[in-house]
């Protein structure tokens, strides 16, 4: 994987990783693209354990969203809709590298990456994509008791004004502590240890912590805090009903972020939306790990992505 950059429509420089060299022009192994969108305070480096296996048969791309990773940290743009607009600019850039070429794109959105894809669909439709994979994200983080969206479906720790303000303060005032808390929340073996986790060495635990905290540390806490407010309140339930392409939801049974019930809502919304015959094209896969299931169970994750891509090519 190599890093490249492009400019969003407001001039912000955004970075991405590509498994195919882009100079003088990309020559992927076929017309299949697997596009990764990472989670909050992350980067495309999240998927280091997934890129090699998937790039054997597809052109793999990983975008560092605005304010994350190697992308520019603009003063504004702390909205999911802005990140969706950046994704549109990214797709236009990819197509500009090989004018006239058509690709079959499987978009894999993890956490806020899924929210970006739902917002993209709401704003621009889903015609550019062949299929979707949404990884461990419910369509609404806040509780909404008017519409039967309570603690069983909302985010476990950031779900109303009070908890959101507390989370904002943590990212701004206690960043180092918050980076570690994020790891504790997102790795299933730390959030909800099982008997099998006793075999994990202290070295492995420390390496995982250092890896993910180093990624979060690149971000600006105040900017993240403003993005968090937008992300937490954003209701994507109706947007999920606009999806017309095959949809796979991957959920972590030991996720510190969402319950299986909350994530199952995505599948049900897609099935009951406007797509044709979506009953057989929307499904859910449950992993025994946490929010970062792509890291904890990479072999299974990679295999299921490969099978999903083949199924809808």
TrEMBL record:
The superkingdom listed in its UniProt entry is Eukaryota
Q: Name one Pfam family in it.
A: Abhydrolase_1
Q: Where is the AB hydrolase-1 domain?
A: 33-298
UniProt name for this protein = AB hydrolase-1 domain-containing protein
Species of origin: Podospora bellae-mahoneyi
């Amino acid at each position: 994987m190599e890093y490249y950059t492009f400019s969003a429509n407001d001039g912000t420089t955004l970075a991405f990783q590509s498994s195919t060299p882009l100079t003088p022009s990309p020559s992927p192994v076929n017309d299949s693209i697997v596009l990764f969108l990472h989670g909050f305070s992350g980067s495309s480096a999240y998927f280091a354990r997934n890129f090699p296996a998937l790039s054997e048969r597809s052109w793999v791309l990983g975008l560092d969203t605005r304010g994350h990773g190697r992308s520019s940290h603009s003063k504004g743009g702390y909205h999911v809709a802005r990140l969706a607009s950046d994704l549109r600019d990214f797709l236009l850039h990819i197509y500009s590298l090989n004018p006239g070429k058509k690709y079959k794109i499987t978009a894999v959105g993890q956490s806020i990456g899924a929210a970006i894809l739902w917002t993209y669909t709401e704003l621009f439709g889903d015609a550019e994509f062949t299929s979707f994979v949404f990884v461990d994200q419910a369509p609404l983080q806040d509780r909404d008791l008017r519409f039967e969206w309570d603690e069983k479906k909302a985010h476990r720790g950031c779900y109303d004004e009070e908890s959101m303000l507390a989370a904002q303060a943590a990212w701004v005032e206690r960043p180092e502590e918050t980076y570690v808390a994020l790891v504790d929340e997102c790795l299933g073996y730390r959030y909800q240890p099982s008997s099998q986790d006793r075999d994990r060495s202290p070295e492995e635990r420390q390496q995982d912590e250092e890896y993910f905290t180093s990624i979060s540390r690149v971000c600006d806490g105040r900017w993240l805090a403003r993005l968090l407010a937008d992300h937490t309140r954003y209701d994507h339930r109706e947007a999920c009903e606009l999806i017309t392409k095959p949809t796979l939801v991957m959920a972590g049974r030991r996720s510190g972020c969402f319950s299986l019930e909350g994530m199952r809502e995505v599948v049900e919304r897609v099935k009951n939306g406007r797509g044709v015959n979506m009953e057989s094209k929307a499904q859910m896969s449950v992993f025994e790990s946490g929010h970062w299931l792509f890291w904890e169970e990479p072999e299974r994750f990679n295999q299921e992505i490969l099978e999903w891509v083949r199924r809808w090519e």
